[in-house]
Amino acid sequence: MTTDRRALPAVGIVLDLPAVRALLTRAPRSLVADAVRAIIADARAEGREGAALPPDGEAWVQEVERRIERRVAPSLRATLNATGVVLHTNLGRAPLAASAIDAISEVARSGSTLEYDLERGVRGSRHVHCAALLAELTGAEDALVVNNCAAALVLALQAFASGRDTLVSRGELVEIGGSFRVPDIMSSAGTTLVEVGTTNRTHVDDYRRALGPGTGAIVKVHRSNFALEGFVAEAPVRDLAPVAADAGIPLIHDFGSGLMLDLSPYGLSGEPTARDAVADGATLVLMSGDKLLGGPQAGIIVGKAGAVSRLRQHPMARALRVDKLTLAALESTLALYRDPATAVQAIPALAMLTARAERVRARAEAVMATLVGYGFRAEVVATEATVGGGAFPTARIPSAAVVLEGDAAAIEARLRGGVIPVIGRISDGRLHLDLRSVLESEDATLATLVRTALS
Length: 455
Known about the structure:
Blueprint: H1 11-15, H2 18-23, H3 29-46, H4 58-72, E1 80-81, E2 85-87, H5 98-109, E3 116-117, E4 122-123, H6 131-138, E5 142-146, H7 149-161, E6 165-169, E7 175-177, E8 180-181, H8 182-188, E9 192-196, H9 204-210, E10 215-221, H10 237-247, E11 251-256, H11 274-279, E12 284-288, E13 299-303, H12 305-313, H13 316-319, H14 324-336, H15 340-346, H16 348-354, H17 357-373, E14 378-388, E15 397-404, H18 408-416, E16 422-423, E17 425-427, E18 430-434, H19 443-454
Parallel strand pairs: 1-16, 2-14, 6-9, 6-10, 10-11, 11-12
Antiparallel strand pairs: 3-4, 5-13, 7-8, 12-13, 14-15, 15-18, 17-18
């Protein structure tokens, strides 16, 4: 839309256009008026030249509509993840199981037992939810849920090492994403970081020599988002546990990924499970709920009963607590793990990671055939997907993608601008839609969205 600055109309004149008045049936007058004012202000600021307001004002109406659509559209939207990164942090990581979504709906609809003890008819504690189930699944004595894994680490350090020293290997001072780093998180908890060992080799004796009267805890960080190879060594939790016990301090294991099942039968090996981590003897084991566990964002703390009880009573536990929707989704997700075969099928993240490569390719070919049938140029190619979410950093999973022929950047932009944005991956100058990170139930939706965006 172009206009002569001297011929810019008054807001009321634009609002009186028949097509603009029609918009008032779909949007509040204040919103429409704000859009008109913004358009006029932009035109005045940019000094655009052109014709005055035409009788029908078609260009004005289109611009007003566009501005209103942008204003009313939610900033947090559902997308279709076709990147080939299953646990894509930017796209919300793990999609929830159907039972978890149902559980959220159930407790959101009305009242709930969030902090009410039904047996005694008195006030209860939200911290009891999920605790017994987590203990059952991991072999821990007790459990606590906070809002993410970084929060779990902050709470543990504030409870046990605030004003004191915390020992950690130099090789474990990692960045966990979004420029957040373990040393910064630890310092925010009020503890003094004491580095032990070297970047590539740290031994049990390094921790033992660093112990002193001011030591409050030992932290072991599982390097889940990168791998060290070559001349390397690290002190395992099972060897550090007696060192911490002899010193009378907790061993805090930042386990990270939240893997609850052994995925080696599906070609994903090298990551310990939560039960393994607990069995190794750490005082507290910390992990995420929205990574390999496949649930909502949460920080899960499992471990010794006395240590967990101390965290539960700490003032920061209230600041870091989770809401009823998170607890409902997490409890429902955890319940699926009672039957591992059910969990692999019902938890979307696990289903996508463990799907057979030939099945993924067959789905890609079906989507491609649908597009070709409508006249689009596409083909299926073999790809390698990744786990994402800072887990199994070196794993490459056989997959298949639909490749759309044409200007990759233009196609990507059109798919990204759809009613449900489709997020793909440009590789070698071509747009790939990897089916490994797409739920099988979304295949038809994917084909429809591509046809609509490119028509």
